[in-house]
Amino acid sequence: MVPFGKRREQRGRAGVTRQGNFAGKNEKEQERRDADRRMNALLELFDIVDVTDRVVGRKPRSWVHRYGLRHRAVHTLVFNARGELFLQKRSLTKDLNPGLWDSSCSGHVLAGETYDQAAWRELGEELGITDPIPLRPVCKLAAKQETGNEFIWVYQAQSDGPFCLHPGEISEGRFLEIRDLDQELLVGPARFSPVFVHLWSRLRHQFLPRGMR
After folding, report:
1. What is the pTM for the complete model shown?
2. Which helix (H) or strand (E) is 180 found in, with range?
């Protein structure tokens, strides 16, 4: 196992997971587009929901986070054929949990969007997955402090990669065996997003190989 503190290339069946050049051909163009992306993110509209996850209104992202309003999100856990889980390290430019390890793919559900639509959109935006892959809903987590006041549908997908990581969203990514992930969480939980720590503690048993159950 390579510690999270040491960077390595993660090879999938078809090649190396890499960052994509989503933002342009030069560094200044990249910076400008990243700034535009952050501004657009603040203006995104989210559905506000009640305790039963019924939509009761819409507010901009910045407003939702500022006042801790109840809203929706998706997390997708991508496993390869060997049962290893792909983890992403959030970009340092992210407004929430920058630089922390997180689910393979995650994001907010936009106003008027379904959970399924959000899950597919985030797979395309963050990992560059546009072709159909096996994707199934696993569990819905209730909105509370541990989830950032988000109702979260968790999905499971299968892909060996390679992935094209969005540089404005993800700084790096890797596949990790579950036993190694458990060890990393034991010795350094602060390196992971709080929502992922909560999610994995709740759902870990569902993804264990039979010999580890």
Report:
1. 0.82
2. helix 178-187
